[in-house]
Amino acid sequence: MLWQATTNGLLLGGLYGIATIGFSMVWGVMGVINLAHTGFIMLGAYTTYGLYHWVGLDPIASIPISMAAMFALGYVLQVLILNQIIRTSLLLSLVVTFGIELVMVDAVSNAFTSDVRSVNASYAASSIELFGVLIPVVRLVAAGFSIALGIAFYAFLRFTRAGQMILATALDREVAALMGINPERIYALTAGAGAALAGATGSLASMLFPIMPGMGLTFLSAVFVITVLGGIGSVEGCIVAGFIYGLVQAWSGYYLGANYQEIVGFALFLLVLVLRPQGLFGRAFFGEHA
């Protein structure tokens, strides 16, 4: 049923949007394509899994803990590793972040094995019927929290001193430094915030997807497409593009079959690069649209 597929695509699109914000921000502020981002999503899911099975904590209640843990990890990695190579080359940052991703995956594989795990909350099988369309409660909750976190991060950037320093550093690192802003500290804050949002994504995804060491890679193509579609560094662009991507995947799966979803997604990626390389909400560079 088309309306059912559309609903599922929209709800999943909210999760894709929040999964992309941190990736897009790090790219926009620092010029780093952080391939370790999906590793933070995976670690967030395992954090929720552990708290659910060992402590009995509801997956939703575990989100702040996942975010705090991933913020700390992202901040430390930025300070100890990425700040040392950020001014070198894009290729080196790609290699280093990919290496960090592999370390995360291997560490989790050794700790938990590669067995597929799951989080089955009490409301996991519940649905709401609206005009003949079934709305899974878990997907509705995930989409709602994704939108709320996206709005909160947007407000953080626009209305707090730390957020304004992030935007100033993205606009011009040298001028920001002359005004007393420490770029390395701002980069660490940005990386930590991006990792925190990835951790929240992992917590929400743990209720929707199988939990395994390589689960973060399922988000990699989505975050690339959504970042380009929404505009690099644009929070609102990520949210809108996430819903668009979710719809495109749902409709392509409905009309063409599941095997064509990724093909259509990458075709959208190429189309945006050709017709509007800056994305829906982007400009020539990130600072111009702040």
UniProtKB/TrEMBL annotation:
Q: Which Gene Ontology biological process is one annotated for this entry?
A: amino acid transport
Membrane topology field: Multi-pass membrane protein
Q: Which residues cross the membrane?
A: 12-33, 40-57, 63-83, 90-113, 133-157, 186-205, 263-286
Q: Which family does it belong to?
A: Belongs to the binding-protein-dependent transport system permease family. LivHM subfamily.
Q: Name one GO cellular component term.
A: plasma membrane
> What GO molecular function annotations does the UniProt record carry, in alphabetical order?
transmembrane transporter activity
Q: Where in the cell is it found?
A: Cell membrane
Species of origin reads Xanthobacter tagetidis
Per the record's keyword annotation, is ATP-binding included, yes or no? no
Keywords assigned by UniProt, alphabetized: Amino-acid transport, Cell membrane, Membrane, Transmembrane, Transmembrane helix, Transport
Respond yes or no to whether keyword Iron-sulfur is given for this record: no
Name of the protein = Branched-chain amino acid ABC transporter permease
Any Pfam family hit: BPD_transp_2
